[in-house]
Amino acid sequence: MVLTQRLTQICLFLISFIGVLGGILQMWKGEPHTTPELDNVHRFLAGIYLACGIISFWTALTIRKQHMLVFLLAGSVLMGALGRAISMNIVGVPNPKGLWYTYFLSEIIIPILMIVTQLITSRRKYK
């Protein structure tokens, strides 16, 4: 396995870890200090978050067979970062601010790293 493919795989395992743990935690916690409708949506999205974590894990395990799925997963994380940016712009940054900025930066850096390394791997593979 080439280094760029290994880096993509590491990013996928990281996304998987975050998605699985975050999804389970948010499904369990919910959003009890709000309306039933918002708690319902929150837990539904937590299920999607958990499923994306599982898909990322499978993609990391089968990285040599994957191509477009890596880009789709990276794009999904970038869309999540966009949602976070919109939230921070409209309602503000939650406390502690440094933690939430760290989340946001990692949601930008990791998928961009995945896209770049996957593009490099693809170019080497198809030469």
Summarize the structure in words.
There is one protein chain. This protein has 127 residues and is an all-alpha fold. It has one domain. It has helices at residues 3-29, 36-61, 68-91, 97-125. α3 runs antiparallel to α4 (97-125). The chain is elongated and about 55 Å long.
Features:
83% helix; 127 residues; mainly alpha
Question: What is the gist of this entry?
Answer:
By secondary structure, this protein is mainly α. The protein is built from 4 helices and no strands.
> Residue share in helices?
over 70%
Q: Tell me what portion of residues adopts beta-strand conformation.
A: under 5%
Number of helices: 4
The chain-level structural class is mainly alpha
Low-confidence stretches: none
The biggest beta sheet reads: none
Dominant shape: elongated
Number of strands: 0
From the alpha-carbon coordinates, what is the Rg to the nearest angstrom?
Answer: 16 Å
Distance between the termini: 16 Å
* Order of helical and strand elements: HHHH
Task: Tally the structural domains.
Answer: 1
Instruction: Kindly report the oligomeric state of this protein.
Output: single chain
Mean pLDDT score, rounded? 95
